[in-house]
Amino acid sequence: MKNLVICGGSGTRLWPLSRNLMPKQFAKLINNKSLFQLALERNSAFCDSFCIISNVEHFFLAHDQMDASELNKKIVKDTKYILEPVGRNTAPAIALACLTLNDDDMVLVSPSDHLIKNHEEYEKAVARAAVLAEQGNIVVFGVKPAYAETGYGYIEVDGEDVISFKEKPDAKTAGEYVESGRYYWNSGMFCFKAGKFLEELQRHAPEIYDACRVALENASNSQYVRIGLEDMLMIPEDSIDYSVIEKCDCLKVVVSDIGWSDVGSFDSLSAELENDKDNNLIISNKYVATIDVNDMIVVDTDDALLICKKGSSQKVKDVVHKIKTVKPELANIHMTAYRPWGTYTVLENTYGYKIKRIEVKPGKKLSLQRHMHRSEHWIVVSGTATVTVGDRTTMVRPNESTYIKMGEMHRLANEGKIPLVVIEAQVGEYTGEDDIIRSEDDYDRD
């Protein structure tokens, strides 16, 4: 069985833990593991290969977390990546992946940002879905509702037959659904043969099928399939539910009680993490003292603090919308940013200068670049830096430094076997991350 892991979505309801460049599936929320890693480890029990469908900006996060997960190293090495420059929803993402497979390949489509706690029931559900898919069906997974949730879609079922799909209901209707016993949460997971899905997609959404074929033909045909921006924008945007699932006549459902959650808000995350004696969820690296408050959510990061009443955490997305207009970097990135070559942490940022801690992984290097509005000083803390400035390359060791004038082409590399740690002081009237003009880059960034 092939596992297609969908890594789209920004998880705005989990801000400030989740940001555009660190969406919720990659944030380490449960026992110091990300939901992405938990999904891989869970599905490795019955899947022999993975295909990760991700935004190109998140490729290195997915790659590094897969490498750090508790998986067979051969599976890690053979994993395929479909890299999208922009998202076009789930139907194109799944189509692009299926077009790289054989028609008879059995496929399990699973989101990367959901939590499943009952692994035994989950494996039984997947096994039954595979049997139904082998018979030529497209299978959806219905989850027994634990309560009347208004944030999920519902599937009306009769045995293994799907009667109807229902959009997110109001509270009264959701209660009626749960009480009837005929409705199940729509988990967003699917099982089918790759060729069967493509056949149904071609029948019901031929414009998506055709555009995906063209995009894939123009893309690099390798383990890392990178779709071009213009080709991606030519693909109509639609979900698998609307384009295929709700239209095909070969649909079956597997229903089960698998301890499922989409961890779509801090209220749902609160049910999975330890709360204090007053039922407050507090997430912080600092000791947080509370007085005469209960049923609160407190999330403290290096650059942002969220405080809200439990039951109101769905409104976090409205806060993020406002933040994008007044301080957009808070919605985009953490103080510590992850890059293909390593990480950087902003230690201080004020008008005229910025100070960073940069860590470069062994064997990695930054792009060959220059800046138009700032000069830089690099001080090596540990490891040995290979520094290129203009046409000169030198080795800089701990407690040594170098200086790069504004406008000079330069590069930082780690040719050693241990991480390289550098303190960078930027001086100039503008120190934004977009003041980078790249000449060469190992990661094909602009």
Summarize the structure.
By secondary structure, the chain is of the alpha+beta class. It is 26% helix and 32% strand.
Keywords for this entry:
alpha+beta, six-stranded antiparallel sheet, 3 domains, Jelly Rolls, Spore Coat Polysaccharide Biosynthesis Protein SpsA, Chain A, ten-stranded mixed sheet, 446 residues
Description:
This protein has 446 residues and is α+β, with helices and mostly antiparallel strands. The chain has three domains: 2-261, Spore Coat Polysaccharide Biosynthesis Protein SpsA, Chain A (Alpha-Beta Complex), CATH 3.90.550; 266-331, no CATH class; 336-440, Jelly Rolls, CATH 2.60.120. Helices cover 26% and strands 32% of the residues. The protein is built from 13 helices and 28 strands. The strands form seven sheets. Strands 1, 4, 5, 6, 8, 9, 10, 11, 12 and 13 form a ten-stranded mixed beta sheet that branches. It has a six-stranded antiparallel beta sheet with strand order 18-19-20-27-22-25, with no helix packed on it. Strands 15-16-17 form a three-stranded mixed beta sheet. A hairpin with a 2-residue loop joins β18 and β19. α4 crosses α8 and α7 (194-204) packs across α8 (206-218). The radius of gyration is 24 Å and the shape is globular.
Topology overview:
Elements: E1 2-6, E2 28-30, E3 33-34, H1 35-43, E4 49-55, H2 59-68, H3 73-78, E5 80-84, H4 90-98, E6 106-111, E7 115-116, H5 119-134, E8 138-143, E9 154-158, E10 161-166, H6 171-180, E11 183-193, H7 194-204, H8 206-218, E12 224-226, H9 229-233, H10 240-245, E13 251-256, E14 260-261, H11 266-270, E15 281-283, E16 296-300, E17 305-309, H12 316-326, H13 329-332, E18 336-339, E19 342-350, E20 353-360, E21 368-370, E22 375-382, E23 385-389, E24 392-396, E25 401-404, E26 410-413, E27 420-427, E28 437-440
Parallel strand pairs: 1-4, 1-6, 4-5, 5-12, 8-13, 15-16
Antiparallel strand pairs: 2-3, 6-11, 7-14, 8-11, 9-10, 9-11, 16-17, 18-19, 19-20, 20-27, 21-28, 22-25, 22-27, 23-24, 23-26
Helix pairs in contact: 4-8, 7-8
